[in-house]
């Protein structure tokens, strides 16, 4: 990665906007994350926003964030935007970028962990938007930083993937940057609910 610090604010704001647009009757809708409904993905967002904030604050949590629909907190509409704001604030502290940071039992150089956090916020923002029929606005600088993090996984053997994403989905090299990022993170940019 060439970026020393990243601004998580644009994609955090976009994810908060998408979350605000989710209706209760959409909580059981399918998402691009196979087997994970909207409520499960929201539960994952609750966990990851807190875990990556703690990573920035150098106080790692045990385990990895869950993604279970039946454990989605009742106050998710208030909690997700608040935790997104806290995540952004934590990564604005200079100390967050020093040394290493740990989340989900993985320790990485702090700038790389920030990029992982950004990727999670950006890609799951798209997941939730497309699952609930909303538009999604990707910040170009954020997409570029995430592409640098993810790299080209097109021909990466499954045992070298590390389990972070599903198998890469082929996307034309001249496709928009967001589509290329989605493909590299195991998503079909053309995915819509009800389509195989």
Please tell me what the overall shape is: globular
The percentage of residues in β strands lies in under 5%
Instruction: Report the top-level CATH class.
Output: Mainly Alpha
Q: Using only CA atoms, what is the Rg?
A: 16 Å
Brief description of this entry?
This protein is 45% helix and 4% strand.
Task: Report what the structure shows.
With 196 residues, the chain is mainly alpha-helical. It has one domain: Four Helix Bundle (Hemerythrin (Met), subunit A) (Up-down Bundle). 45% of the residues lie in helices and 4% in strands. The protein has helices at 9-20, 38-56, 76-91, 110-131, 140-150, 177-184, and strands at 100-103, 106-109. A two-stranded antiparallel ribbon has the order 1-2. A hairpin with a 2-residue loop joins strand 1 (100-103) and strand 2. The relative contact order is 0.17. The model has no long low-confidence stretch (mean pLDDT 91).
Notable characteristics:
Four Helix Bundle (Hemerythrin (Met), subunit A), mainly alpha, two-stranded antiparallel ribbon, 2 strands
Topology of helices and strands:
Layout: H1 9-20, H2 38-56, H3 76-91, E1 100-103, E2 106-109, H4 110-131, H5 140-150, H6 177-184
Antiparallel strand pairs: 1-2
């Amino acid at each position: 990665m060439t970026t020393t610090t990243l601004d998580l604010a644009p994609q955090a704001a976009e994810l908060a906007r998408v979350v605000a647009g989710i209706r209760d009757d959409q909580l059981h809708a399918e998402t691009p994350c196979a087997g994970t409904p909207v409520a499960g993905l929201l539960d994952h967002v609750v966990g990851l926003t807190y875990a990556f904030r703690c990573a920035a604050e150098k106080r790692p949590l045990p385990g990895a964030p869950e993604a279970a629909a039946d454990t989605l907190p009742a106050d998710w509409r208030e909690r997700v935007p608040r935790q997104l704001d806290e995540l952004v604030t934590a990564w604005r502290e200079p100390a967050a970028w020093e040394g290493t940071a740990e989340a989900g039992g993985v320790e990485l150089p702090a700038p790389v962990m920030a990029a992982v956090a950004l990727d999670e916020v950006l890609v799951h923002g798209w997941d939730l938007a497309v699952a609930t029929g909303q538009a999604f606005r990707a910040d170009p600088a954020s997409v570029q930083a995430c592409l640098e993090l993810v790299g080209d996984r097109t021909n990466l053997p499954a045992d070298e993937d590390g389990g972070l994403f599903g198998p890469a989905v082929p996307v034309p090299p001249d496709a928009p940057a967001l589509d290329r990022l989605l493909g590299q993170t195991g998503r079909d940019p053309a995915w819509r609910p009800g389509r195989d």
